[in-house]
Amino acid sequence: MKVVLSFSASSTAYLPFVQNGYAHFQLNGFSQADAKSFSKQYLSTYSKALSAQQEDILASWVLAKQPRCLSVLLNELVSFGQYDALNEYMRGYCRLNEVGQFYDSVLRRLSADYGSEEIGRTLLMLSLTLEGFTEDEVKSMADINQILWSQLRVEMSSWLTNKGGRYCIGDTQMVEAIERYFAQDDECIDDSRHEIISALLDEEEILSHPLTFADYNYRMKQFCYHDSYRYKVEITYQCYKMQEWDILKDWICDVEIFEILYRTNRSLLEDSWKAIMNDNPEVTPEVYAELDFDEIDSF
Questions:
Q1: Which residues contact 272 (CB under 8 A, 6 or more apart)?
Q2: What local confidence, expressed as pLDDT, does residue 180 receive?
Q3: What is the tens place of the pLDDT at every residue in 213-226?
Q4: In sequence order, what are the residues at sequence separation of 6 or more whose Cβ sits closer than 8 angstroms to the Cβ of residue 167?
Q5: What one-character DSSP code corresponds to residue 278?
Q6: Is residue 161 within 8 Å of residue 170, measured between CB atoms?
Q7: Alpha carbon separation from 82 to 48, 52, 85, 90, 170 (Å, rounded)
Q8: From its phi and psi, is residue 129 left (phi > 0), alpha (psi between -120 and 50) or beta?
């Protein structure tokens, strides 16, 4: 049985799951007592604590019912270094009753502290990726140094997803806030996708590194497959999201790329081909008959 849970009545993040056959249940979220208990446990890991008055301010916040919003705010409090001004700092956030407004405020604070250009470039890339990027990839693509990345990783610890050493932002409402705050329009987002593709294509040494499919099969069992395959899946996804169907068709009709997609992300391959056929009805699956699949080693 496939089930998706949500806390916020205003969130639409669950809709794609429902469209794919998931049953949807909306949870009530934290009570004030739950929020206080969660806050104590969260802050204790950083050897920090709130006063009784501060706990009441936090627990009475409308968005404290949502665990993700509460953990993001607690992380903001951990990063805030002025104890004397903490009450007013908390009240500023707790006046915000919409998730979008709250996330916008968090992004505004990050931009003010670290620079809008660097933050925007980094967060857009992390929010647009399918497979996630390693630390070195993030630093190279976003053109930031190790010190800034280390600081950002701590700042984003409550909403940054770590997929076995590959980082991305999976919170759909945070992704929407990032695009709203840092991208002026769809063209700006597409520009970021083009930068991702160009950066991955530039990694020629990694992309051309030989690896047998037997070795690949072993790595898949360890949930960590070769970078060259991940890059090709990522490039396919970025082309698909940009709706550049002619480029996408030429890309996935490459024999090697077709098999990698077939073996690693068949749903993306199917979605891409359906989109290509919808864009141009004259393109049919028969085009695959022209490919020489005898050249490919099977698993």
A1: 236, 239, 240, 248, 252, 261
A2: 93
A3: 544 454 444 444 56
A4: 126, 132, 133, 134, 135, 138, 153, 160, 161
A5: H
A6: yes
A7: 13, 18, 6, 12, 30
A8: beta
